Amino acid sequence: MKSRRTALLIAFGMVVASGITAEADAAVWVGASTGANAAGWSGAQSDIGGGKLTYRRSFDPTLRSSDKANWRAAGSRHWYSAKPINNDIRGYIDGKYDAELRALAKDLPAGTIFTVYHEPEDNMSGATFNKVMRKTVAVVKAANPGVQVWYAAMAYQWKTNSKGNVGTSAGWIDAARAADGVSLDIYASPGNAVKIQDDKGFKRWWDLIKVPSGKPWGISERGISASHGEEKRIAILKDDWAFARERGAHHFLYWQNNNDGQWMLTTDSERAAFRAIAAQGRQR
């Protein structure tokens, strides 16, 4: 009995040491950002989902009234982002918009992933975002405990620090620890045909935010530029999906959004490749 227990502990230790969580190869939710209306979601379900997409990524530029919030347009599950009214970050932190946030949160379906200010790294300091996150968690959880509040980060900033706000993880890691989970928006832009696990922004975010936070993680936006060509796009998609499953991601969402044609999967083979991914995704 002792030798069997020892063997199990050794095996578990090897999993932890490899950087792969105990959730490795667990089912991953698969979804997409498809624009601001039901037609975009319906088209993506047919084109790249085969009816298997779950989370729809949606956005509002302010704290809209619940009946006008974009998440209502479509989707079975929701990954929803909003921003403070008039982008008044200071007023938001000080509680000026608690009533609007509370009313919005109250109607979100259980299991919704929600954030106020996705990709905040090019807009504010880590210390400021920590206050935004803590305000969001406090108000949303009190209004609707079934909603998850996540931090959606920007891989480009963690790679380049072009706005000077992520020279260190100070503040950002505190926000991550206050959240229910941490996700990354990451793009293989023209000239950067790199799979997720090799992206410098991902690696730095993983080391400074995901690992020390100990929180569930996901890919909330993934785009691969059409400039890389069909064969390369499909190869990157397959590598990304295998990596997301191996590392126990909660979700993997593609940017199938027509606001910029370079990211959409448009060829028959590209769409078939993503339908195969969606078919392997978690459904309940």
Order of helices and strands: HEHEEHHEHEHHEHEHEH
The helix content is 40-55%
What is the highest CATH level, the class?
A: Alpha Beta
Structural class: alpha/beta
Please tell me the CATH architecture by its name: Alpha-Beta Barrel
Tally of separate helices:
10
Signal peptide: 1-26
Protein name: GH26 domain-containing protein
InterPro entries: GH (IPR017853)
Keywords: Signal
Describe this structure in words.
The protein is an alpha/beta fold and 284 residues long. Helix content is 41%, strand content 17%. It contains ten helices and eight strands. Strands 1-2-3-4-5-6-7-8 form an eight-stranded parallel barrel, surrounded by six helices. Strand 6 (181-188), helix 8 and strand 7 (217-224) form a beta-alpha-beta unit. It starts with a helix and ends with a helix. Mean pLDDT is 92; it is low at 1-25.
